[in-house]
Amino acid sequence: MAKCNKKVGIIGNYGACCGTSLGKMVKKIDISQYAKYTCSFCGKTKMKRQAVGILHRGSCMKMVACCAWTYYTNSAIAVKSAIRRLKELKDQ
After folding, report:
1. What is the residue-wise DSSP string for 27-38?
2. What is the DSSP letter of 72?
3. Among 42, 43, 57, 66, which residue is least crowded by beta carbons within 10 Å?
4. Alpha carbon of residue 52 to chain centroid
5. What is the pLDDT of residues 48-84, one digit of tens each?
6. Could you tell me which residues come within 8 angstroms of residue 83 by beta carbon, excluding any fewer than 6 positions away?
7. DSSP state, 47?
8. How far apart are CA 26 and CA 13, in angstroms?
9. Are the C-beta atoms of 49 and 34 separated by less than 8 Å?
10. What's the whole-model pTM score?
11. Contact between residue 48 and residue 36 where contact means Cβ atoms under 8 Å apart
């Protein structure tokens, strides 16, 4: 009987050279790198990474500077939610 191919996912590009712990870190970066993000201008999930730190939306013709591998950093999310909360307290 023939052997079946092992399903390794996106980490199969790197083979056995990087090991499991490095492979998990690379997998996390690769998945976020190739993901599509929500456009903050039109609301559609079509923003794609064009280069390191640049996201581009073709039909809106908009470009956004962002973090190297993700759209938002964790600290930016925390600051944004704090500003929103303070605005709500001010309006009350």
Report:
1. HHHHHHHS--B-
2. S
3. 43
4. 11
5. 888 888 888 888 888 888 877 777 778 878 888 999 9
6. none
7. B
8. 11
9. yes
10. 0.60
11. yes
